[in-house]
Amino acid sequence: MSSSPPSAQSAPAPPAPASAPAKAASHSPWRSLRYRSMRWWSVANFVSNAGTWMQLTVQNLLVLQITGSATATGLSMSVQAAPALLISVFGGAAVDRWPRKLTASVSQALLGAVAFVTAFLVALDRIDVTTLMVLAAVTGVIATIDGPACSLLGNDLVPAQDVPSAIGVGALVHQAGRLTGAALAGVTVGFLGTAAAYAANGLSFLFVASVIPFLRPARGAVKHVAAKRRGEADTMTVREGLAFFARRPRLLALAGVTGVSAVFGRNYQLTLAVLVTGPLAGGAGSFGTVSTVLAAGGIVGAVLGARLRRPSVRIVGALAAAGGLLQVVAGLSPSLAVLLVMVLPMAVVESVSDTAGTAVLQTDPPAHMRGRVLGVWGSIGTVWSLGGPPALGLLMELAGARGALIAGGLIIAGTIGAGHLLRERRSAAPVAVRAGDADAPGQAALGTAA
User: Strand, helix or coil at 367?
Assistant: First the structure.
């Protein structure tokens, strides 16, 4: 990393061993699992995700049981998400300042403590809506640190070229944990009660916290160095993270692509539900089939995304635009069978795009800035998640389910295409290059790789 580049006249390096090129050129989606620590981290993440989704499922049922109100259930979810909008940037700054493993261990232990407190209160029948809301808010605050800390810790375990694989494996682990946790929630509540589900989630957090100290980065992994002196910590500010993000065209482009896709193309649980039960005259069972196909496509896309070695914003944009066009075709589907054929590639493209975008986000900034960049991204993403469904709902009110899918897909593809053309035009603009004391003829400006 720190060695100086060889001169133009230096002798060629001796050939590497026969096995090295094959390993370096591997496109296997599972290549990050060659490293022991990554295998342990994946197991820990599966356990944690299963526990988290078990608790989320039970929490929604518990709020409904206490209040009988769907509105209160939605409010509890919003309360847990709200801290990300307000303080994610501060959580990201903390992740950059503090040792990564220690930060992730402490945040996991604190989340476990919140789960145990909730289990204790539920077991004693001392829980009410206000207490649940407070505990949800505390969980959301801790998550603003835990999220970026755990995301970057996983990337710290593998060489840079294997980070897309680590992210893809993480996506698969997340999906597997979600399915497992939702299934275990019903079984656990049925046999052991609601408190047991919260206690199981607490144990899952403690398991992760106990695994983290034993993780070791592989050779070639990017090393995160926390600030050791007060002067160093004082420079690792939230303002610096915001300024870095705002000055980074690649990150701004990624935010634009992801934002327009999130608002007009990612809320399939809303748009497809209305399309299936409305114009296509299907029922809940038909929408369940569509949801299953979406989940299967997401898993396939995560595997394909994990094969990438050099993700870029161009790849993310191209995939998002392709997803928009597929969405247009889905909106024109004359029957449920045609819709099912279109839904699978839509989900695959979306999942690959997500994996590529996450890899760019987590590897493009220098190591000492990545926590703050993820913090900024957390705040931006919360705006999309909170503002997207109402905006899409309004579009559906005006244009119907088909119109919303078609218009949304065209907006996505058109916006990304226009952005690409503007960037190409700006990159190709002639500039004067000074050679000695005279100006050389104009040459095309070189744009940064995206």
Answer: helix
| Rg (the chain; Cα; Å) | 24
Cα angle value 155/161/167 (rounded, 5°): 40
CA-to-CA dists, residue 144 to 167, 304, 312, 336, 419, angstroms? 19, 29, 26, 40, 31
Report whether 207 contacts 214 (CB < 8 A): no
Run of H or E including 441: strand 438-444
State the chain's mean pLDDT as an integer.
83
Helix (H, G, I), strand (E, B) or coil at 434: strand
Reported as type and span, the H/E element at residue 430 is: strand 430-435
Q: Which pairs with CB-CB distance under 8 Å and at least 24 residues apart come from 285-292? A: 286/336, 289/336, 289/340, 290/336, 290/339, 290/340, 290/343
Tens digit of each residue's pLDDT (9 = 90 or more) over 216-250: 998 877 776 555 544 555 556 888 989 999 999 99
Closest CA to 366 of 152, 128, 116: 152
Distance CA 116, CA 118 (A): 5
Helix ranges, 248-369 (H):
249-264, 268-277, 284-306, 313-331, 336-363
Q: How confident is the model at residue 446 (pLDDT cuts 50, 70, 90)?
A: very low
Structure tokens that stand for 277 in this block: 């039960």
Report the Cα 349 to chain-centroid distance in Å. Answer: 15
Highest mean pLDDT among 17-21, 62-66, 138-142: 138-142
Q: How many CA atoms are closer than 13 Å to the CA of 363, on its beta-carbon side?
A: 27
Rounded to whole angstroms, what are the CA distances from 67 to 64, 124, 361?
Answer: 5, 18, 40
Asked whether the predicted pLDDT for residue 363 surpasses 80, the reply is yes
pLDDT tens digits along 364-379: 899 889 999 999 999 9
Q: Alpha-carbon torsion 377, 382, 387, 392, what sign? A: positive
Tokens 């919260």 sit on residue: 198
CB 104 within 8 A of CB 45: no
Cβ atoms of residues 376 and 301 within 8 Å: no
Contact criterion met (CB below 8 Å) for 169 and 32: yes
Nearest to 272 by CA among 227, 213, 339, 337: 339
Q: How far apart are the first and last CA of the chain?
A: 22
The whole-angstrom separation of Cα 357 and Cα 253 is 11
**E strand intervals along 146-206:** none
